[in-house]
Amino acid sequence: QVQVAESGGGLVQPGGSLRLSCAASGSIFSGSRMGWYRQAPGKQRELVATITGDGTRNYADAVRGRFTISRDNAKNTVYLQMNSLKPEDTAVYYCNAYFTSGWPTINYWGQGTQVTVSS
Question: For residue range 50-87, what is the model confidence (pLDDT) as tens digits?
């Protein structure tokens, strides 16, 4: 069964905007720190942004000031608003649910959504 699923990727011109969405099952979402990661071709997966259940946010230096992460706990959904997009933002973006309400902790991953920034 699909427990975490992303949507909203696509092709956008430099300077444009895009919003990604990620829905997770309620039991996972409520006990998890949610996050977005990305992986460009030939490169390692890197953290983009995270948000805790109470709304505490963390951003990678490369996206701080341009991207905004948010979550709607009623909808079990996390969002990534991406503005002022650059070609170097091109990557597959993955939604992550880091379940921290038990031991051991567990990571759940979505299948990824492609974001391409090109003129």
Answer: 999 989 999 999 999 999 999 999 999 999 999 999 99
Question: How confident is the model at residue 45, as a pLDDT?
Answer: 97
Q: Give yes or no for a contact between 48 and 61, defined as CB atoms under 8 angstroms apart.
A: no
Nearest residue to 27 via CA among 118, 115, 112, 99 = 99
pLDDT digits 0-9 by tens, 89-119: 999 999 999 999 888 999 999 999 999 999 9
Q: How far lies 45's CA from each of 1, 54, 84, in Å?
A: 24, 26, 21
Give the count of beta carbons closer than 10 Å to the beta carbon of residue 93. 23
| Residues 81/65, Cβ–Cβ less than 8 Å | no
Burial of 98 (0-12, 13-18, 19+ CB in 10 A): middle
Q: How far is CA 59 from the centre of its chain?
A: 11
Residue 64 in contact with residue 40, Cβ under 8 Å? no
